[in-house]
Amino acid sequence: MSNTHFAPVLITGGARRIGLALAKSLLQKNQPVIVAYRSEYPALTELIDLGAECIQADFSSNQGIYQFAATVQQRHAKLRAIVHNASAWLAESPGTPPEQTMATMLQIHVYTPYLLNQLLENTLRGQGNAGADVIHLTDFVVEKGSARHIAYAASKAALDNMTRSFAKKMAPDVKVNAIAPALILFNPADDALYRKQALDKSLMKVEPGEDEIVELVHYLMRSRYVTGRTHGVDGGRPLR
Predict the structure, then answer these.
(1) Neighbour-count burial of 10, counting CB atoms closer than 10 A to its CB (0-12 exposed, 13-18 middle, 19+ buried)
(2) Nearest to 137 by CA among 8, 1, 52, 14
(3) Whose CB has fewer CB within 10 Å in the chain, the N or C terminal residue?
(4) What is the rounded average pLDDT for all residues in the chain?
(5) Do you find a cis peptide bond into 188, omega within 30 degrees of 0?
(6) Strands laid side by side in the 33-37 sheet
């Protein structure tokens, strides 16, 4: 069956790390994918070669969110899912006014998914009971807070709460869930000491890799019943 018979999955921030791994996994299963990206990444060429539709998006302003949603609606009548993966990890810093840090975190983690869910709701509905999905990528710090990333944790907590609200609003057509990771994948620049300290914070003491998130996304999309829940992928870290 041709890919044109399937509604695409929209992944925000899909050109690197978890988003990239998910996009490639879906494409390998002949699932059409739309990748929203902010900046040019080397992986975009690979994604396009694999068949992904890549759309540059500026989510730093509400106008940019509206423009992106309009572009998606012009090209596609229906979406199979929206995976809100776009994220930024900003700490409070003496050199940055705190209101600026909070505004940036709210823009990417709250306004962007909130508006896209509202603006693209019609593309998700009308595909049968549990026929579409919205998945929010949050963070394990939602449960415990963070002294050095207060605005980040607060914005992810708002996104986590929206999971339940949108699950109520969009049922039964659309399932809405959150995935709350802790350490998934180190950055190449992370030194040995940092890696040991990070691994020691979890019960499982491993760097699990993106597949843990990718497989959970596949499960949630296959499910006909799971909605309004936050799924921790944290190696037991909140229990430490």
Answers:
(1) buried
(2) 14
(3) N
(4) 94
(5) no
(6) 53-56, 33-37, 9-12, 81-84, 132-137, 174-181, 230-233
Place of tokens 């944790």: 153
36 sits in the region (left: phi over 0; alpha: psi -120 to 50; else beta) called: beta
pLDDT tens by residue, 86-110: 999 999 999 999 999 999 999 999 9
- pLDDT at site 4: 40
Catalytic residue set: 152
Handedness of CA 186, 191, 192, 193 (dihedral sign): negative
Give dist(CA 211, CA 229) in Å, integer: 20
Token look-up 């978890």 returns 18
| Dihedral angle sign, alpha carbons of residues 110, 146, 192, 95 | positive
Which pair of tokens denotes residue 66? Answer: 């509206």
Number of H helices, E strands in the chain: 10, 7
Give me 161's structure tokens: 């709460």
236 closest CA partner among 171, 158, 140: 140
- 3-class secondary structure, 178: strand
Tell me how far apart the alpha carbons of residues 172 and 224 are, in angstroms, rounded to a whole number.
10
Residue positions counted in the chain: 240
The 10 Å CB-count burial string (b at 16+, else e) for 139-167 is: bbbbbeebeebbbbbbbbbbbbbbbbebb
